[in-house]
Amino acid sequence: MKIRITTDSASDISQDLCEKYNITVVPLYVVIDGVSYKDRLEVTVDQLFAAMECDGPFPTTSAVSEHDFEELFSSLSDGETEIIHVSISSLSSACYSNAMIVARNFPNVHVIDSKMVSSGIMILALRAAEMAEEGMDANAICEELERLIAQTDMSLLLDSLKAIRKGGRISALQAFGAELFQFKPMIAMKNGEFIVSKKYRGKLEKALKDYIITWLKDRKDIDLSRIILTHNFRNPAMIEPCKELVQSLHPFKEIIIQEAGCTISCHAGPDAFGMIFFKKSC
């Protein structure tokens, strides 16, 4: 049977990569001033950031509905296709549980809890598509994805904890401490949840350099086949020095630069930067 990879818009995967790897994306929703917009289709990151500066309710996100999953799986189910859906972490959104409910009516659908957000989902979806192209069957791909989830290294440096605090992902006390001492917090995904892993002092440019060096330098456990650098810099020129520094530390075969979408930006706020890669097998 043919295998089709699907994911949600929280993955931040670009349209070009979707076309290259034949991946279908279903949108989450971004709620601004009480109105729901389809992520990627009806709202931009710039519009989201503008809304964050207004006096109204802070923007939020909502999950892909069961109805949307029903439409997605129905549209791809032709009797000859198995679907592997790589979902945002079940601890970050109801997307996974909604997909699982709908998948009960589709024996050809396999739902994977990535335990990731943003490009952490993307790196798994890309690898799933590659395995499908290599001829692996759906069960084998799902087993390998479960193994890779445990080896996915995802971290983000935030300019501020304001957005992630308002979204309820961390405590007000943690956010207050970072703001009081002017830290740039680094968050990592651990077992499907955000944790504040490190803190960096100084302006954003210095914190970015320190983060990249301390997180990558001298590490021997990195799979150098691919790294994704995800960002939502308001000044896009800031990504190039980050890329060059990463290249100077490790000879990655592929570096993907990916602009973060509304879902992660709603919780991370502007000027966030992240690195995502696989660790080597033990």
What characteristics describe this protein?
282 residues, alpha/beta, globular, Hypothetical Protein Tm841, Chain: A,domain 3, Rossmann fold, 6-stranded mixed sheet, 4-stranded parallel sheet, 2 domains
Textual characterization of the structure:
This protein is an alpha/beta fold. The chain has helices at residues 15-21, 45-52, 66-76, 95-103, 119-133, 138-150, 162-166, 172-180, 204-216, 239-249, 262-268, and strands spanning 2-8, 23-26, 29-32, 35-38, 60-62, 81-87, 109-113, 152-157, 183-190, 193-201, 222-231, 255-259, 273-279. The chain folds into 2 domains: 2-28 and 63-150, 3-Layer(aba) Sandwich (Rossmann fold); 152-279, 2-Layer Sandwich (Hypothetical Protein Tm841, Chain: A,domain 3). It is built from 11 helices and 13 strands. Strand 6 (81-87), helix 4 (95-103) and strand 7 (109-113) form a beta-alpha-beta unit. It starts with a strand and ends with a strand.
